[in-house]
Design brief:
- Strands 3, 4, 5, 6, 7, 10 and 12 form a seven-stranded mixed sheet that branches. A three-stranded antiparallel sheet has the order 8-9-11, with no helix packed on it.
- The chain has one domain.
- The radius of gyration is 18 Å and the shape is globular.
- With about 280 residues, the protein is of the alpha+beta class.
C-alpha cells in the first residue's frame, strides 16, 4: 500500500513494468493521489480510503489486500505482492525471469532480504540506469514472502500458516532470489518519506499504525552501522543468511505467521553482476 512514496514507486513501476508489462501492475494507494496517475499512466489503481482506520489498521489493510489478491487470481496464476520500496532481483544464471520462478512456486516463494544503502555517489535511479549503491546489507527481517499462487495470505513479512503445512523455509526460500529494500537507497527520498510518515504519526487517529513507523530512525542507524565496514564476500554472506532462515523460522501453527525470525545482520557486500543484470531489462 503506497502513500506519497514517489521515488521508490517510480523504480517499482519501471522495474516490474519492464518485466511483466505495465498494464499488469496494480498499485494499492492509501488515499486517492492524482500525481500517481500522471507518473504511472499505464498501471491499474485500487484506492484504500484514508479515513478508514479502526482498531487494527494493519489487520484491516491486509484483509483488504487479500480481497484484491483473490480477485486478481481469477485472471492470473500467480501474484507478486511487494511494498512500493521493494523489488525482487534474481540470479540470471539460475532463472529466466518471473515465469521461470513462478513455475517453481509451491504455494508461495520467499526471497533473501537485502538493504541497499545510499553511499552518496552511485544513486539507484532505476532499470536502465543501474548505478546501484555499492553497499548491500543482508537483513533477515526482509527475507519475506513475495509470490503466491493465491491460496496463501501474505502477512507481516510471511504467510498465514495452514494446517498440515510441513515444508521448511528452505523449500520456499529459493536460492539466488533477493528482495531489495530501497528505503535507504536514496537519502533525499528517505528524508521526504520520513517527513510524510512523521506527519501521519502526528495525527490524533494514527495511534493504530504499525509500531515500526515510530522506530524508523533507530532502524536506519543500525543499517548504516552494518554498511560501514569493509566489503565482504557476497556468496559467503548469502549462505549465512540462508542458513539463518532455515534454522530460525517462526512456528508454523495453524493461523500463525510462517516467517523468518529477525536477528541476522551482515554486510556490507556488493551485489554480483549476475543479480544486477536481472534489473536491466
Amino acid at each position: 500500500m503506497a502513500h506519497r512514496d514517489y521515488w521508490a514507486l517510480k523504480v517499482w513501476y519501471a522495474y516490474y513494468g519492464a518485466q511483466l508489462g505495465h498494464e499488469n501492475l496494480y498499485i494499492i494507494e492509501h488515499g486517492h493521489d492524482p500525481r500517481y496517475r500522471r507518473l504511472f499512466p499505464e498501471a491499474n489503481f485500487v484506492t484504500y480510503p484514508r479515513d478508514l482506520r479502526g482498531q487494527s489498521f494493519d489487520a484491516e489493510r491486509y484483509d483488504f489486500m487479500d480481497l484484491i489478491q483473490a480477485e486478481l487470481c481469477q485472471d492470473y496464476s500467480h501474484i507478486i505482492r511487494t511494498d512500493a520500496d521493494e523489488i525482487i532481483a534474481y540470479d540470471v544464471k539460475r532463472y529466466d525471469g518471473f515465469e521461470d520462478l513462478a513455475a517453481q512456486c509451491d504455494g508461495f516463494l520467499m526471497a533473501t532480504g537485502l538493504q541497499l544503502v545510499d553511499d552518496g555517489r552511485n544513486l539507484f535511479r532505476g532499470p536502465g540506469d543501474i548505478r546501484l549503491p555499492k553497499r548491500a546489507v543482508f537483513d533477515s527481517r526482509y527475507s519475506k514472502a513475495w509470490l503466491t499462487d493465491g491460496d496463501w495470505k501474505l502477512r507481516d513479512h510471511g504467510v498465514v500458516a495452514k494446517s498440515g503445512h510441513q515444508r521448511s523455509v528452505s523449500h520456499h526460500l529459493v536460492e539466488g532470489v533477493y528482495l531489495l529494500h530501497l528505503k535507504y537507497a536514496n537519502a533525499r527520498a528517505l528524508e521526504h518519506q520520513s517527513a510524510v510518515r512523521a506527519g501521519v504519526l502526528s495525527r490524533d487517529d494514527a495511534n493504530n499504525l504499525t509500531q515500526m513507523w515510530g522506530n524508523d530512525a533507530t532502524y536506519h542507524v543500525l543499517i548504516e552501522k552494518h554498511a560501514a565496514g569493509e566489503l565482504r564476500d557476497f556468496a559467503r554472506l548469502d549462505a549465512l543468511a540462508r542458513d539463518h532462515a532455515v534454522t530460525n523460522t517462526q512456528a508454523a501453527d495453524d493461523n500463525k505467521i510462517f516467517r523468518v525470525k529477525r536477528g541476522f545482520w551482515k554486510g556490507p557486500a556488493h551485489l554480483p553482476r549476475r543479480v544486477i543484470r536481472s534489473m536491466q531489462g
